[in-house]
Amino acid sequence: MKNASHQPAKRDSFASSFGVLVAMAGSAVGLGNLWRFPYLVGENGGAAFILIYLGFVILAGLPVMLAEFIIGRRGQASARGAFQKLAPGTHWGIVGVLGVICCVFIISFYSVVGGWCTEYLFKSVCFDFTEGDPENLKTLFSSFSSSVWLPILCHTIFLALTAGVVVAGVQNGIEKFSKVMMPLLFLIIIGIAIRSMTLPGSGPGLKFLFQPDWSKVTSQTFLAALGQAFFSLSLGSCMVVTYGSYVKKDANIISLSSQTAVADTLFAIIAGCAIMPAVFAFGISPGEGPDLVFVTLPHIFSQMPLGGVIAIFFFVALLLAALTSSISMLEVVVAFCIEEFKMKRKAAVVVSFVFIWILGCLCSLSMGPLSNWKILGKTIFDLFDFISADFLMLIGGLLIVIFAGWKLGKAVVFDELTNGGTHPVPAWLLKTILFLIRFVAPAALLAIAIFQIHE
Ligand code: TRP
């Protein structure tokens, strides 16, 4: 879209509230929902974990999301710029820079996994899992992921797809893409869940997910729940600050945030219903992460009536979930380059692409030829995961709530939550949100950060 002639370049923005919601949900719903949540639920006492998780979403997740929205919409700038504008002459902009760095790290390994999803989608279209012996599938996956060229090619394709959406802009790229893909993603996963829950012998899988078992709840459960809530809602990395800066002044950020959290949690639970009943129906013990998705599930698809088709749908869903998340991470980096280095969107996308592509190649190679390169005892892939998810997101989240709650303060927070007084919000709700932003969320984040360092 052309800008009005003599005005300074107008910021891109989302066209509708539904657009914001699907873009936010797109960012939140990702690999975290499909390959971690179901497993964590099962391992940590089923419904007991879900309840603790919901508690953290409300007590820590929502306050951080609201704080990011407030900073982004009020600052009307990307990650660093928003802090800088709201607190000129201070060093708060560093929080934005940390967010950008965090997104660069996450997208580097995320894109490698996105590449694997692309390859497995291709394999499923070719009905490659029909020889579904688990040992074969395990060897197939490990020889693929540790090889040199094919994973790098797949990572390149995935990152190029992400860049293709981001280069089209917020309204014409991200919003349009999410509007079509998110409903499709929900439909596919609901379809698979129905298939999975109607398999004979699916009962134990549902029990694994939903039977509350408080005896499995330990301090580790609380940590896992808070970490997962944070990762799954894409918090602490200025993603919501960046998207928030594209949100109109009259949008209701309280309901947008709650709807995003509901959509993300609902998706995670449906994903659990799609995966676990099938895993148990075939008498397999569920694992976590890559093996669950790239070894166990292909094995199950090969055994299941109609499994070949379900496999295609599943990998389409996985790819879409990963794409809508990586788009949001790339947008954080691109918006930063556009505003800080005065680049055109296209140039910013190219520069970010090249930089992230190189880091992604290192992550990919660290599964194979570079597996001996270790820093802090971790391969590059694991190191990036650790620095971003276990460290930068938590520190970022903590600084973000402190900034919104204490530096911007009550008047600004209330002003943003009520859209300058034009949108009535009950006083008790405003006060509760402020209390959560000022005290509860920082306490929870500090506790988990200290615990992580201790470990
Ligand atoms: N929420 C995404 C998922 O569940 C991953 C994610 C973590 C993310 N941090 C992010 C996405 C920051 C965008 C921005 O898979």
| Overall pLDDT level | 93
Q: How many alpha or pi helices? A: 17
Write down the CATH topology: Amino acid/polyamine transporter I
Strand content: under 5%
The main β sheet shows up as: none
Number of domains: 1
Instruction: Evaluate the radius of gyration.
Output: 21 Å
Q: Indicate the structural class.
A: mainly alpha
Name of the level-1 CATH class: Mainly Alpha
**Gross morphology:** globular
Throw out a few tags for this protein:
Amino acid/polyamine transporter I; globular; mainly alpha; binds tryptophan
Summarize the entry for a quick read:
This protein is mostly helical and 455 residues long. The chain has helices at 17-28, 31-43, 47-75, 79-86, 93-125, 134-145, 149-167, 170-197, 203-210, 219-232, 239-244, 253-281, 290-303, 307-340, 345-365, 380-417, 427-454.
